[in-house]
Amino acid sequence: MYRANNPTALITVGLLNACSGGLLIYMALVDLHAAEFMGPKLQGSVKMQIKCFIAALPGCGVMSIIAKWA
């Protein structure tokens, strides 16, 4: 029988949520952003790469706020 307040259940749910979040971060950073950052337009300009990394930070922050809220 599942009890939501059981410490074992809480640890299990926390670990599964952490794994899911980690996989989503990996997919976003490695598979999606890597394709964009390895393109010829960004490879030719370090200044443009820095701007793109800085622009990605607010997006990560907003997604963290949404995750905390949801």
TrEMBL record:
Keywords: Membrane, Transmembrane, Transmembrane helix. One of its GO terms (cellular component) is membrane. GO terms for molecular function: metal ion transmembrane transporter activity. The chain crosses the membrane at residues 7-28, 48-67. It comes from the Eukaryota. The keyword Lipoprotein does not apply. It is a multi-pass membrane protein. InterPro entries: ZIP. Its main location: membrane. It is found in: Membrane. This is Uncharacterized protein. It comes from Brassica campestris (Field mustard).
